[in-house]
Amino acid sequence: MLAKRIIPCLDIKDGRTVKGVNFVDLRDAGDPVELARRYADEGADELVFLDITATQEKRKTLVQLVRRIAREIDIPFTVGGGIRKLDEIEEILHAGADKVSLNSAIVKNPDLINRASERFGAQCIVAAVDAKRKGDSWSVFIKGGTEDTGKDALQWMKEVEQRGAGEILLTSMDRDGTKSGFDVDLLRKVNKEVRIPVIASGGAGTIQHCIEAIREGAADAVLAASIFHFQEIDIKDLKASFNNEDIPVRIVP
């Protein structure tokens, strides 16, 4: 079994890190550069930066902030938000990101996945999926969770894999910010359908929730925000718990 990853997420609005519940009621969580440096020092395996209002505001990602963060860390760094074109992907990668996260743009233009994967390599392309339960299925939302596309999330994730995405960042909108646990049912079903790595997002509140996402949901990584931002769980403690559960993880001295 490959090592499982622990990934803090920086949701960025107006140049600050924010965190809400179910994609609304945002509150300030600190300076993104300082948080990024702290997480790298604490042993995070990767970092995700999401400019959460870029698509709604119809503007590009904050490239200068990406550069500042990239200079401060030595772990893989994924950037998303408002990225719509191949040259914008290239700009973000040149600014220091290792991967780009695409959501609204690939729902509207799925061929962008194919072209981006061919040009930059599948390892650089993360398909972000914001999913909300509707009865016995899940629907894909875009534009920062404000627009229901009507797409079936499981079918969409199969398609992004076929088109060349190297990884899926799956956020349960129902669980986002609630600290009630990951949507293990959704994770389990997705991981039966796709072979590329799936990052579990939305709902982390305890160490046990993270263990469940790996053990029961078959997630390859767990992503969280508020539990790390507000120092409710230490990354080193989380990794030690994984180790105690025989979940392979990279231990930093």
List keywords for this structure.
eight-stranded parallel beta barrel, single chain, alpha/beta, globular, 10 helices, TIM Barrel, 253 residues
Outline of the structure:
This protein is α/β, with parallel strands linked by helices and 253 residues long. It has ten helices and twelve strands.
Task: Give a structural overview.
- The structure is a single chain.
- 35% of the residues lie in helices and 28% in strands.
- The two termini are 22 Å apart.
- The protein has a single domain (5-244), classed as Aldolase class I (TIM Barrel, Alpha-Beta Barrel).
- The radius of gyration is 16 Å and the shape is globular.
- The longest helix is centred in the N-terminal third of the chain and has 11 residues, at 32-42.
- Strands 1-4-5-6-7-10-11-12 form an eight-stranded parallel barrel, surrounded by seven helices.
- It is of the alpha/beta class and 253 residues long.
